[in-house]
RNA sequence: GUGAGUGUAGCUCAACUGGUUAGAGCACUGGACUGUGGCUCCAGGGGUUGAGGGUUCAAAUCCCUUCACUCACCCCA
């Protein structure tokens, strides 16, 4: 590998890619704000210890970590939740509860890449802190679903699988299974379907029959029923499947957990999250105890889902085209009027119009081609007509002559901008 | 980290299975076209065939190594 190649798993964002990324970010912000969440951000580099503390030392294998010049062990953040817990523990007194925070940022992991899993990606994180009521779980799920709806995805395209860790911990408690075995057993349940049935049975031991029965019949609980009812009240129940096989790998979840998938099941999880009521206390060494819940949604898998869903893809392409287009292309037909044109270009830009023009003498035909390529809806031609400007509607191809002093008004009228002088 | 597959122009692919100077479409630049855009025609730029080594009179083609990508495993933030 030469120094001219990018590192594996990292991405260049050419204009088209950047447009996609910005489209995703815009929808994320729009919907999160709609739910009353406020944006925040943390550092991209954290002490490696922060992640060890939460997830154990095995996680270091997957961290993008190194020793900095001050001999500190640091890691490129693999996720936001530990940072959030630290920040909340330090600052929670400054805010009314519950906190409803979201963040859009870049995250890293040192793993071999494959589809939907790169070494860097962007993630939206949404968290509610300081609320134990199930209403918060429902609200968070509704937000997660509405985020996908904002991309044009429907209940036929995506599904939220919801489970409850308490369902299993209650189950194990009732059968007098010692608490120190719970995490282990939850991992086995999490792997159900990915691992052979024999191996699962072996690991479950005497609980095998019971657990398999629950897994095949599907679990049920009053809490999960209330959750689905809450979503049904909002007309979102069709997006939801109760699936107690979902446990999630991370050990810090304590209650409702969920994952979002494409209905076709071709891709990795689009998003995942749940309730983590003990994490802030644990990470703050018991200084602060706050119930919390949240989820993360990555840009990579989401982008793939949009790509593979025709109506969502069309919506994105239209939005990107509209965002990218310029308003006006200025055609300089006679170079002696370049200065006149530039004076008016400046005025137009000051008024907020997106204006482009040729930097060097260019044939008129090419200038109109550039207007076309830039998506301009209006062309202004500066030439022998001066002090009049020829205004061409590029959609209808109609032309008219406007005195240059009246140009701004004429343009404003064309774009339906209220008179603001 | 393990295993398999794939690497030819910016993109999609050719190259008669080892045989002249590696081609085409799209894209890009310019011209036909000295004041009018989605056509058309013509021309041009662009490649150490991912990289390094080996076999051979001769390698994009066969062998080895390495790097990258894809898929599966692993893991899932």
How would you describe this structure to a colleague?
The chain has 421 residues and is of the alpha+beta class. It has two domains: 15-42 and 80-318, Bira Bifunctional Protein, Domain 2 (BirA Bifunctional Protein, domain 2), CATH 3.30.930.10; 326-414, Anticodon-binding domain (Rossmann fold, 3-Layer(aba) Sandwich). It is 39% helix and 20% strand. It has 15 helices and 16 strands. It has helices spanning 15-34, 48-55, 81-91, 134-149, 165-174, 182-191, 197-204, 208-217, 222-233, 279-283, 299-308, 310-324, 338-350, 364-373, 407-414, and strands at 38-39, 45-47, 64-67, 73-76, 99-108, 120-129, 158-164, 240-242, 256-262, 271-275, 292-298, 328-332, 355-356, 378-382, 388-393, 399-403. The protein has an eight-stranded mixed β-sheet with strand order 1-5-6-11-10-9-7-8. Strands 13-12-14-15-16 form a five-stranded mixed β-sheet, with helices on both faces. The chain has a three-stranded antiparallel β-sheet with strand order 2-4-3. The longest helix is centred in the N-terminal third of the chain and has 20 residues, at 15-34. The N and C termini lie far apart (58 Å). The chain binds one RNA strand of 77 nucleotides through α14.
